[in-house]
Design brief:
By secondary structure, the chain is of the alpha+beta class. About 30% of the residues lie in helices and about 10% in strands. It has two domains: about 35-120; about 145-250, no CATH class.
């Protein structure tokens, strides 16, 4: 194959420098696809929106890595398959990841390291976590050009095996693993993610979910969680009975009650 295939889109520029993809450069990276993620992240602005909801108590005169840069590096690393924060100790000078985060590969500042990532992963409190969830739901609502006539949510828990004794990790007899069972909420019509809720690894009983920050997403998910934990549940979106995220989004989504 000797003919070059041109990309149907332009990669995001960095420091007013054009980015091109080739196989004959100097420093080669196996994570070139992260530039596509960077293009999507720039359009959505998810890192900046999430960072705006977290209180940064650091001395502004001594900040080296901005909060949005930290979140962006962590998200890109996870998307490329590097889920451990320790991986950033080696990836912080990866040319592709640096470009995706807006830094030049040679002259640009290296990305944040594992200790910085770990501190910020444990910094947000409960109120900030709830606000972060609202941002994710808001991004989902903004993804519609016009309010849909109705929305059906697919709510399912997913096995997340842990290695150790992390908080909330429990042994699950069905999976025969020590794990988390996070709940994933998706729009069935578009497959777009709506929200994700970290849960203990026990079989859902429906008792604790109504107190969670994701409870307002689908009104009352307690009856949904009470069903067999390895089967997905699909629930039509109905008007919320109490305060919740959808009440704040009524001007974006028009909710149509379904006949029982």
């Amino acid at each position: 194959m000797i003919d070059d295939s041109l990309l149907a889109f332009s990669l995001p520029s960095v420091d007013r420098k054009k980015i091109t993809a080739a196989f004959d450069g100097g420093r080669i990276s196996s994570d070139g696809g992260v530039m596509l993620l960077a293009l999507a992240e720039r359009r959505i602005g998810i890192a900046a929106r999430l960072a705006a909801e977290i209180i940064d108590r650091r001395d502004a005169t001594r900040i080296v890595h901005g909060l949005s840069d930290i979140l962006r590096a962590r998200m890109f690393a996870i998307a490329c398959g590097y889920e451990d924060a320790d991986d950033l100790d080696h990836l912080r000078n990866d040319p592709a990841l640096k470009l995706a985060c807006g830094h030049l590969p040679a002259s640009g500042r290296d990305l944040c390291s594992q200790p910085t990532i770990s501190r910020w992963e444990n910094a947000p409190g409960l109120r900030e976590v709830i606000r972060l969830m609202r941002v994710m739901v808001g991004l989902y609502c903004n993804s519609y050009d016009r309010p849909p006539a109705s929305v059906t949510l697919d709510i399912d828990d997913t096995l997340d095996v842990v290695h150790g004794h992390q908080q909330l990790s429990m042994f699950n007899a069905h999976y025969d693993e020590r794990c988390f069972l996070p709940i994933h909420v998706y729009d069935t019509a578009t497959s777009r993610p709506v929200a994700v809720l970290l849960r203990p690894g026990k079989t859902p009983s429906g008792q604790g979910d109504t107190r969670s920050s994701a409870a307002p997403v689908a009104g009352d998910p307690g009856p949904l969680a009470a069903h067999s934990h390895h089967h997905s549940r699909r629930q039509p979106l109905r008007p919320p009975r109490g305060d919740g995220l959808l009440r704040c989004q009524r001007h974006r989504l028009r909710i149509r009650p379904l006949r029982q």
